[in-house]
Specification:
Two copies of one chain form a homodimer. Chain A starts with a helix and ends in a 5-residue tail after the last helix. In chain A, helix 5 (about 165-175) packs antiparallel against helix 6 (about 210-220). The relative contact order of chain A is 0.09. The first copy, chain A, has a four-stranded antiparallel beta sheet, with helices on one face. Chain A folds into two domains: about 50-110, MYOD Basic-Helix-Loop-Helix Domain, subunit B, CATH 4.10.280; about 115-125 and about 135-225, Alpha-Beta Plaits, CATH 3.30.70. By secondary structure, the first copy, chain A, is α+β, with helices and mostly antiparallel strands. In chain A, a hairpin with a 4-residue loop joins strand 2 (about 140-145) and strand 3. The radius of gyration of chain A is 35 Å and the shape is rod-shaped. Chain A is about 45% helix and about 20% strand. Chains A and B meet through helix 2, helix 3, helix 4, strand 1 and strand 3 of A and helix 3, helix 4, strand 1, strand 2 and strand 3 of B. Strand 1 (about 135) of chain A pairs antiparallel with strand 1 of chain B. The structure holds a DNA duplex.
Chain lengths: ~230, ~230
DNA sequence: GTACACACGTGAGCC
DNA sequence: TGGCTCACGTGTGTA
């Protein structure tokens, strides 16, 4: 078959109306066609409109050929390189990529909905957890409260979301928890460890469940995870 | 411009050599071309080889046109529908899809490489084991490691012992963990929340179990609690 | 020899 | 009107 990929750069492709004709074969072919048509019409086909037409059509073909080459270049595992195959492979490849994206997005979505939070109430339960390897949750909230001092330790391990710290503080404010001290440490590239110690208002009593419920409810909204 | 998308199904496209000619215009055009060429050659171009050639070429064009339509069908937001644009948009779209996949795979990879070892060990007061539900443990150690970044988050909640922070840092040093950042927050009067992020030395590999084992072993000695 | 893929020039349709 | 795209038949090279 013709190697249309390399034909692009052949001199004959553009030398039809140039001064020299580096590719005699192609020149002759083109010239023959021209003469034939000219004879039929009884006038020279070298007139400007026809020449422009030929030139623009040639340009259009060249452009398409370039695009074909570019398209075939980004399709991996291309075996047959004829244009029809390139098109068909491109179609398959696009479908394949779409499918892969769908899978990945599904995975990502699953992961988000799989995120569980560690719900620790005001009193921690003293027993050893022997959990071995597992995936880091997107959001992990833990609250430990001291009833006597009415202080709460809140530890949050989460993916870096925009403005979570401010939202967290606002949230605590609304829960009548005043910040005693706080700390934010980055873990890796995408994770934040937030530690907050807050004082519960004297007039507002809250159980650990209530606190955790409110806290997690609003925080998980940031990740659009249904409760 | 010609609507090459709808040209596909036009009768003239395939009726050239059929018995009827449902599209007179196209038929005439084709016939004229044929006669012209035939005259030049001085013989009928209806001979079998030429006809087959024409037919196969026509088939090839039709196939390509179908592929073009199929390709343009799976490219969203296609504005210009000329072939060159379809090709160029297809190229862009493929690149775009590839980019999206790269992002998603990176995310997924991050998540997977974030396989962590979460170890939690709680040691409660020996004298409070019966109603331990309501009492803060004497020592709570938690380590969360990011395998990819070789970073470890260590969270310790403990009664204020003398010099635990220094001992902790020394211990980590001996485990070839270099401190990236740390924070100590007091909770109530008697409790400390220590947060440490440390980097694991490249040459020292440690499993989560090993880390927790060493960490807790030494820390619990501070409280003289038998392992 | 023959089957196929290509580039070409060309006429025509459409803004 | 001119500039654009398209399908067509054709000659040619290659497997």
């Amino acid at each position: 078959m013709d190697d249309w990929l390399s034909d692009l750069d052949m001199g004959g492709d553009i030398s039809f109306f140039s001064e020299e004709h580096p590719n005699p074969t192609l020149y002759c072919v083109a010239n023959e066609t021209h003469v034939q048509t000219g004879a039929k019409r009884g006038r020279s086909s070298w007139e400007t409109p026809t020449r422009d037409h030929i030139m623009s059509e040639r340009k259009r073909r060249q452009l398409m050929a370039e695009r074909f080459i570019a398209l075939s270049a980004i399709i991996p595992g291309l075996k047959k390189i004829d244009k029809a195959s390139v098109l068909s492979e491109a179609i398959n490849y696009v479908k394949q990529l779409k499918g892969r994206i769908a899978v990945l997005e599904q995975e990502s979505s699953n992961k988000k909905s799989m995120m569980i939070f560690t719900k620790k109430c005001l009193q921690s339960h003293p027993h050893c957890e022997k959990n071995s390897n597992h995936v880091l949750p997107q959001l992990q909230v833990e609250a430990i409260g001291l009833e006597l001092e009415r202080e709460v330790l809140i530890r949050i391990l989460c993916e870096k979301p925009k403005g979570i710290f401010l939202k967290l503080l606002t949230l605590l404010e609304n829960m009548h928890l005043s910040i005693v001290s706080s700390n934010v440490l980055p873990l890796g590239k995408n994770t934040l460890n937030i530690t907050i110690i807050a004082q519960m208002g004297e007039e507002y009593n809250m159980t650990g469940d209530e606190l955790m419920s409110k806290l997690t409810q609003d925080l998980f909204k940031l990740y659009e995870v249904p409760q």
